[in-house]
């Protein structure tokens, strides 16, 4: 990220003496972090009637968190209703352990059983049910309880401890679907069957009894509820849950007798009771617990946000009475265990934001509270949005049409992404209303990042479900009690007809104007009186009944993008920059909310700041032909004039310093400016045009770094991320595609075009899900997918209603059918040609790009697309879950109703993190750039501690720290496996098992495993990574070239030469295509093939490939480069071996006595390991494993310098690692082997 210009940051200590103690604050913060890391200690836990055990805890852990840890611990997992005591004093759940008086290393904490309430009993029953199903992945498949999938241990468990030194001990043969050239894309291997997920049934039935609720006289005895249990021995048990615990009663199915039954056993835990009365339960539960605790904690911990999988195996619906009871008693998920109660989400969120933040500990507590509350809010908002679309929530305005209805549920306000009361009509109607939800969410994210004390935003989440967008927000206190318009004290909610301002909001928003680059300005209100605003006019301010200042409707938080305009403007050609005109802009857009991304704004400001500095330095450095006296007198005036001129040239708001800000109301409909402001409006409009031109002239051409594979997008999500990192909106896809078509190297960018087309296609998927009756949803989705992925006009009768029999009775025919045939629906008449026509029209109207293919089959063949990749993208972006299947025929539909398993909500929400940890990561980046790798490692470790404290271990930032620690550990020669294993599991859990980031993490882990001697594990990880890559992007992708090179090297080290050749030859083809036949990577591929052919004794082929490598090295880096010299020496060695071999063959044919063929020089696994420890080389006379195998892993390609400034920054941009091939051409003197030795 570019550095922020000095004028946009706080004043330096030299300018402001009050800032000089800042170094002391940083030192104190560092001491706090070190103390935070060192506050771990051991306590003894004493459960009732059980031996005590030791537990490692941290000082910042809350007592409530310790309570949750004990509920997961093997010894105490069956307990839920207990309190913790230290020295006879009960511990408060919201207290940090280190603040408890008397706690120290070895302190004894007692687990004390508490009395049950109905809520506690329900929680206990649910917890027991979760324990019994802890190995069942059904919750992960169904997207429940923040459970998600992870398969790393399937490939590493019981394999990592074996150091394979014998070829026979390694199974190297891959499945056929992984081999190069195979076109089968099976879905079954995506979710392999794990042995530790085999069900262990402990009970046949556990359900609520029909005798519930207890009568009044039994409540007087402490009865809370009654349970029915059928054990594995087929014994029926009736159990009473009382305030003291659980015991057997004498009731039967038809006779109520709540008195205790023999044996009269009272247990505080249901598990304890069942263990005593059922030997089978005790045996199976013990085995289940043993398997559960063997799982890695990263596999068991619930994620902060739910991750949904787009494909799931077909499984039978299990019998689960507890689940059914929860569903019916949860008030549709409002709060599972506090029926009749609901959380005040707004008060919780705003209360967390008002917590003190003066020191590190207070900031951590505040950020942890905000993060936890926001994650709970997102979960509740998701459940509420699903309930709204399913029709389970009564609208506030039931008389309105369904698209106009609003809802309140669980203290949350829900509205639909449609234009209500034509509020968005001037902005684009329903299209603008749909886009406004994301604009508002981005605005809330921006203001949350600035985090100004006293300025409040609403909790916001946007949920797309079944083709309908639902906006969930917390409720401003008092906003529903009176007319909404009367609450507005700032801004305008009627498109400028009335405009208000308020000094409190102006003061608060003015604090955000500098970081958000908002210009404070005046507009005319409804009385033609100038009023001052410091935001977009649509942003309204409301004073809630709680006295807090809330801002809503943050649609124009970022500057307007003038390249896309909703209506024809009277733009003269002089107003539009030539850069925009050359690209065909401005263009009509579907709405007027198109805005520039914050990354583009920062890049543009940084670009202008560089121009500003250059202009000032050039003007001040010009020699002046004046006498010294005149020069001394006019020097301050001259400097002011130079700065004034530079400020005017770059569009600075100030005349005395660099300060670029944007007026958010320049393009707002209905806004009126004062006559004195006309010139400033024109200047601001020119500034917006300059920013739009900068996007086209600088940022889009910057995407050509895909040519050197600095960015390697594999799917639509990663392509979108690449665009956003450069500040380019997705609506510029058409422009990007046209620019790619103009390049001579467009074949090298084919992997960019594929996600582009996928992004275009998915637009119609969401709209096609609307207006579908619930009973026909699976039929409609399957029909749509058949139309999308096939040009066939013959579809199966998947649109028939299962309630309508083929032979209708005479009575039914006479009275007419009460159920309309599903084939009469609009969606059922959709054809493949019609859908493809709509997609082409969408591409033309929205992206301004012409798709020249006449059918989907033609597009797939022309662009070398995979149907499975298109299907994956469509399913992920629209929330479709499919059953495992295989594509059968090109012209035959493959989807039926039963193939569509479920529909999941696609949720967008605020991304919150730790600000202190983010600063530590930035400091670590600077340290590594200066060559201080150890210091960088320590800073990342500290950041990991803070991120984990705030966000939990399953979070993107924690995962980022883990993979950075792994890479630094590898460079420093330390063990990187533990860090990278956690990073892989975290990526699987929070990103998805087939996410491109997960694939890359698998690749890194394979490298570290091979470096550690775990060759079999490394091979299996690479096979997994290649399978996922084939599934996501197909076999025609640069990532596959890397994986094939790695696989070839590993298989060569394991002496599997035929397999090695298959992968290396495919890598050679892909490298030639994506890196050109004269690149160093292509030379490396030739060299690797030469080494394998040498090992096979085929010296002619080895010489041929090494000659190609030598030719490339010589032409690219010169004869004096180490690579060229090594290649030359290797050619001599191959020639000598070939001559010796030929002489031996000649002797044999001449019947010379004692003639024999000399064995080829091969590198065994054992010798490879010895060389690796000695010089980090894997192949004799060849490049190092890291250098040859990881072509685009920048950390291993860089020339080691003292400061590492030219090389190490790339390791932080993990999504785009390769960036060093061109830098390598400039480096003279050290090979990667030297690189590894120095580290």
UniProtKB/TrEMBL annotation:
GO molecular function: mRNA binding
Lineage, uppermost ranks: Eukaryota, Metazoa, Chordata, Craniata, Vertebrata
Protein name (Swiss-Prot/TrEMBL): Clu domain-containing protein
Gene Ontology biological process terms from the UniProt entry: intracellular distribution of mitochondria
InterPro entries assigned to the protein according to its UniProt record, in alphabetical order: CLU-central (IPR033646), CLU_dom (IPR025697), CLU_N (IPR028275), CLU_prot (IPR027523), GSKIP_dom_sf (IPR023231), TPR-like_helical_dom_sf (IPR011990)
Biased composition (Polar residues): 1-10
Occurrences of domain Clu (ranges): 323-565
Keywords: Cytoplasm
GO cellular component: cytoplasm
Highest taxon in the source lineage: Eukaryota
């Amino acid at each position: 990220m570019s550095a922020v210009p000095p004028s946009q940051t706080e004043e330096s200590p030299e300018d402001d003496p009050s800032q000089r103690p800042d170094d002391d604050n940083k030192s104190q913060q560092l001491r706090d972090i070190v103390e935070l890391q060192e506050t771990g200690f051991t306590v003894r836990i004493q459960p009732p009637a059980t031996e005590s055990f030791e537990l490692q805890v941290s000082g910042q852990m809350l007592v409530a968190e310790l309570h949750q840890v004990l509920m997961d611990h093997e010894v105490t997992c069956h307990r839920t209703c207990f309190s913790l005591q230290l020295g006879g004093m009960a511990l408060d759940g919201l207290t940090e352990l280190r603040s408890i008086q008397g706690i120290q290393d070895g302190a004894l904490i007692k687990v004390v059983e508490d009395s049950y309430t109905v809520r506690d009993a329900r929680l206990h029953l649910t917890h027991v049910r979760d324990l019994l199903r802890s190995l069942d992945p059904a919750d992960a498949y169904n997207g429940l309880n923040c459970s998600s999938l992870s398969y790393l241990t399937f490939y590493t468990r019981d394999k990592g401890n074996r150091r394979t030194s014998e070829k026979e001990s390694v199974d190297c043969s891959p499945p056929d679907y992984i081999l190069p050239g195979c076109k089968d894309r099976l879905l079954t291997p995506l979710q392999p069957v794990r042995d530790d997920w085999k069900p262990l049934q402990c009970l046949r039935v556990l359900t609520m009894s029909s005798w519930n609720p207890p009568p009044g006289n039994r409540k007087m005895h402490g009865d809370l509820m009654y349970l029915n249990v059928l054990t594995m021995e087929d014994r029926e048990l009736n159990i009473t849950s009382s305030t003291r615990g659980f015991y057997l009663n004498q009731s039967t199915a038809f006779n109520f007798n709540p008195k205790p039954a023999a044996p009269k056993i009272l247990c505080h835990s249901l598990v304890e009771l069942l263990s005593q009365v059922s030997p089978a339960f005790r045996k199976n539960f013990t085995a289940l617990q043993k398997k559960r605790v063997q799982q890695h904690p990263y596999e068991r911990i619930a994620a902060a946000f739910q991750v949904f999988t787009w494909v799931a195996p077909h499984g039978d619906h299990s019998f689960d009475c507890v689940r059914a009871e929860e569903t019916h008693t949860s008030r549709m998920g409002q709060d599972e265990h506090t029926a009749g109660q609901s959380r005040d989400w707004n008060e919780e969120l705003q209360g967390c934001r008002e917590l003190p933040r003066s020191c590190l500990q207070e900031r951590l507590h505040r950020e942890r509270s905000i993060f936890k509350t926001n994650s709970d809010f997102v979960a509740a908002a998701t459940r509420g949005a699903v309930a709204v679309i399913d029709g389970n929530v009564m609208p506030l305005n039931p008389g309105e049409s369904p698209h106009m209805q609003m809802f309140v549920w669980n203290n949350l306000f829900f509205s639909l992404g449609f234009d209500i009361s034509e509020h968005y009509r001037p902005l684009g109607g329903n299209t603008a209303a749909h886009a406004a939800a994301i604009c508002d969410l981005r605005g809330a994210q921006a203001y949350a990042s600035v985090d100004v004390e006293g300025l409040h935003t609403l909790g916001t989440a946007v949920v797309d479900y079944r083709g309908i967008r639902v906006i969930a927000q917390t409720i401003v206190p008092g906003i529903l009690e009176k007319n909404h318009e009367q609450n507005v004290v700032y801004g305008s909610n009627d498109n400028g007809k009335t405009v208000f301002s308020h000094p409190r909001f102006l003061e608060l928003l003015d604090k955000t104007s500098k970081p958000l680059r908002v210009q404070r300005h005046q507009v005319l209100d409804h009385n033609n009186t100038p009023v001052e605003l410091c935001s977009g006019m649509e942003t309204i301010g409301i004073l809630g009944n709680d006295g807090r200042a809330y801002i809503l409707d943050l649609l124009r938080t970022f500057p307007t993008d003038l390249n896309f305009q909703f209506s024809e403007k009277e733009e003269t050609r002089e107003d539009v920059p030539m850069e925009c005109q050359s690209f065909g802009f401005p263009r009509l857009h579907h709405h007027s909310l198109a805005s520039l991304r914050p990354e583009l704004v920062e890049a543009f400001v940084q670009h202008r700041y560089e121009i500003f500095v250059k202009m000032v330095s050039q003007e001040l450095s010009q020699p002046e032909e004046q006498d010294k006296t005149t020069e001394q007198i006019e020097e301050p005036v001259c400097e002011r004039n130079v700065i004034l001129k530079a400020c005017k040239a770059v569009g600075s708001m100030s005349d005395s310093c660099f300060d670029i800000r944007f007026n958010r109301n320049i393009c707002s409909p209905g806004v009126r400016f004062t006559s004195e402001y006309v010139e400033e409006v024109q200047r601001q409009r020119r500034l917006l045009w300059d920013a739009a031109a900068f996007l086209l002239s600088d940022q889009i051409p910057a995407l050509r770094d895909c040519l050197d594979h600095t960015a390697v997008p594999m799917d639509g999500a990663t392509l979108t991320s690449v665009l956003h990192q450069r500040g380019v909106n997705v609506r510029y896809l058409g422009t990007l595609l046209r620019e790619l078509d103009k390049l001579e190297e467009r074949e090298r960018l084919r992997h960019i075009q594929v996600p582009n087309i996928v992004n275009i296609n998915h637009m119609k998927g969401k709209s096609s899900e609307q207006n579908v009756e619930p009973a026909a949803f699976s039929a409609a989705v399957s029909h749509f997918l058949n139309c999308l992925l096939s040009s066939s006009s013959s579809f199966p009768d998947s649109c028939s209603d299962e309630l309508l029999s083929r032979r209708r009775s005479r009575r039914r025919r006479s009275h007419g059918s009460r159920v309309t045939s599903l084939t009469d629906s609009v969606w059922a008449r959709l054809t493949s040609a019609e859908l493809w026509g709509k997609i082409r029209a969408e591409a033309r109207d929205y992206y301004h790009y012409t798709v020249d293919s006449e059918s989907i089959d033609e597009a797939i063949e022309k662009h070398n697309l995979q149907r499975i990749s298109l299907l994956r993208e469509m399913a992920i972006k629209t929330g479709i879950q499919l059953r495992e299947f295989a594509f059968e025929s090109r012209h035959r539909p493959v989807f039926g109703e039963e193939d569509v398993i479920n529909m999941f909500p696609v949720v967008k929400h605020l991304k919150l993190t730790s600000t202190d940890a983010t600063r530590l990561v930035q400091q670590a980046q600077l340290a590594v750039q200066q060559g201080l790798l150890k210091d960088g490692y320590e800073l990342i470790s500290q950041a990991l501690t803070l991120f984990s404290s705030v966000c939990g271990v399953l979070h993107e930032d924690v995962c980022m720290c883990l993979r950075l620690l792994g890479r630094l550990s590898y460079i420093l020669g330390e063990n990187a496996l533990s860090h990278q294993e956690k990073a892989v599991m975290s990526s699987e859990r929070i990103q998805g098992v087939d996410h491109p980031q997960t694939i890359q993490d698998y690749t890194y882990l394979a490298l570290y495993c091979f470096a550690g001697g775990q060759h079999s594990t490394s091979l299996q990880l690479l096979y997994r990574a290649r399978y996922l890559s084939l599934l996501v992007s197909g076999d025609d992708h640069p990532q596959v070239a890397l994986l094939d090179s790695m696989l070839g090297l590993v298989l060569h080290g394991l002496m599997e030469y035929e397999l090695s050749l298959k992968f290396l030859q495919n890598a050679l083809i892909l490298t030639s295509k994506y890196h050109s036949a004269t690149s160093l990577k292509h030379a490396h591929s030739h060299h690797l093939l030469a080494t394998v052919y040498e090992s096979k004794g085929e010296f002619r082929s080895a010489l041929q490939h090494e000659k190609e490598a030598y030719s490339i090295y010589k032409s690219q880096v010169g004869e004096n480069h180490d690579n060229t010299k090594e290649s030359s020496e290797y050619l001599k060695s191959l020639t000598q071996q070939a001559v010796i071999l030929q002489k031996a063959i000649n002797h044999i044919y001449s019947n010379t006595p004692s003639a024999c063929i000399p064995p080829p020089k091969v590198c065994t696994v054992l010798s490879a390991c010895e060389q690796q420890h000695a010089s980090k080389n894997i192949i004799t006379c060849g490049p190092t494993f890291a250098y040859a195998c990881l072509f685009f892993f920048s950390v291993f390609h860089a020339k080691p310098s003292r400061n590492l400034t030219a090389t190490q920054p790339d390791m932080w941009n993990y999504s785009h690692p390769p960036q060093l091939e061109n830098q390598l051409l400039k480096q003279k003197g050290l090979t990667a082997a030297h690189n590894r030795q120095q580290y």
